[in-house]
Description:
alpha/beta
Amino acid sequence: MKRKKILVTGGAGYIGSHTCVEFINAGYEPIILDNFSNSKEFIPERIQEITGTKPRVIDLDCAAYESLLEAVKAEGNINGIVHFAAFKAVGESTRKPLDYYYNNVASTTSILKLMEALAIDNFVFSSSCTVYGQPDVLPVTEDSPIKAAESPYGRTKQICEDLIQDFYKAKEDLKAVSLRYFNPIGAHPSSLIGELPLGVPNNLVPYITQTAIGLRQNLTIFGDDYDTPDGTCIRDYIHVVDLAKAHVAALSYLEKSNNGLYDIFNLGTGTGNSVLEVVNTFEKIAQMKLNYTIGPRRQGDIVKVFADVSKSKNLLNWETKLSLIDALRDAWNWEKSLKTADIS
Ligand code: UDP
């Protein structure tokens, strides 16, 4: 049987590459659309090493609408688009807001125009739990109020969700979901793909693994005087392989529907872990003491957030299978497998 084609924007990136693997495993043909601005050209070969199939690559910017239209048209019938391509560094977004609005919002507009032009109905969007801000009630359900964004990055995710919803209202045969990720961590258990942070990592787990390997001297824990059991902030850390599988589940949910729809799903484990719990678990797995100190709070940090995952479980028929231990072990193995050539 002919494999259904799925266009995966940002498919060479961290979550995108893991999702391509899961689409291939599920019998689809992912086509990567990536401009390699924050990803490496060897990733499609790594996907081939894992799955036996090398995805086709369209090396273009999502916002380059005319060239994109031509390139995607040439691929023939596309069953759906999974749209990851975006900038994601909160701090950088405050320094370069225009880059964020252009790369995140203009590119989403361009991708939606492409869907209209080529009559592609199924759309899966990468959103973030950042839209909930500092939540009033935990766990966070999809109906929790959207809070004013703390950064241009967060604002671009809110705007894109609204954009997709407005597009759906105008075009009711569209089937679209926004997936709100909690904190994706870990790597593929093969250690062939994983996160490749550019420069000094902003996120906790790559900072931990780089400190453990000696690339960074010391991890600073941003505050231990919060109103939580051990004083450090709490997040819902989800293994990237579980997260990748949720995209296959979401696409299949869209395919099954006879009618247009727009819906939102939380993707997390449903459990919160503190920064200190993550550090202590990592120390057990790597069997080493990590160099860390307690520093001041990071501005704008959310104190405590974790997902209510019942909607994803019930409607997408998906739930996480992997643990924090699995994720930290895979992140550590990935860090140890990296060669200078991979990260330069
Ligand atoms: N964090 C930390 N030191 C670091 C990086 C992160 O203590 O070098 C903490 C951060 O304050 C937060 C948690 O780790 O409480 C997760 O941060 P990350 O940036 O990974 O995710 P986000 O804040 O976007 O949920």
